[in-house]
Amino acid sequence: MTASSAVGVATTVARSADTSELSARGGLWGDDTADARPRPSISVGVATVVGSGLPPEVVKRIVRQNVGRFRLCYEQGLVKDAALAGNVEVSFMIVKDGSVSSVKGKGDLPDEVIACVSRAFKELSFPAPEGKPVNVKYPISFSAPQLADSASAPGSSGSAR
Taking all residues of the chain, what is their mean pLDDT, rounded to a whole number? Predict the structure, then answer.
């Protein structure tokens, strides 16, 4: 990837208003960009923020900065089920000191993945809200990697002999 195309990708991600498609490993956020294996993805949705003590953009920024925590939970689920995909919605409260309390997760993924994502939200730290605590609902979608037909065939190396 050239420097100009990397800047273009970063700009596209930064401009995304409703969701943020993030590669679960590699590419812009990962460690081995030369690896061509399909990647799972995480789509961080739009938060519902109730209370005026903290702008929604701040909540979104903190969640995006910590997407690796949610990715780890999902990857642990992928070890058990390579086709695992689904959604988690986490409800939580940001209290006076910016810490997170009253975390509740729900969704259509296995309980251990939902519990892990909920714990990850519990560990986040936000700026202290002005006035009353802020209630937040945050949806996240997880998608398993899609394998190409030739790459998914047993014993296939992806090249003709």
Answer: 76
Measure Cα distances from 55 to 63, 98, 127, 161 in Å: 13, 13, 10, 58
Question: What is the 3-class SS of 51-113, one letter each residue?
Answer: CCCCCHHHHHHHHHHCHHHHHHHHHHHHHHCCCCCEEEEEEEEECCCCEEEEEEEEECCCHHH
CATH of 41-145, one of 3.40.630, 3.40.50, 3.30.1150, 2.60.40: 3.30.1150
pLDDT at residue 18 greater than cutoff 50: no
Whether the per-residue pLDDT at 45 is higher than 80: the answer is: yes
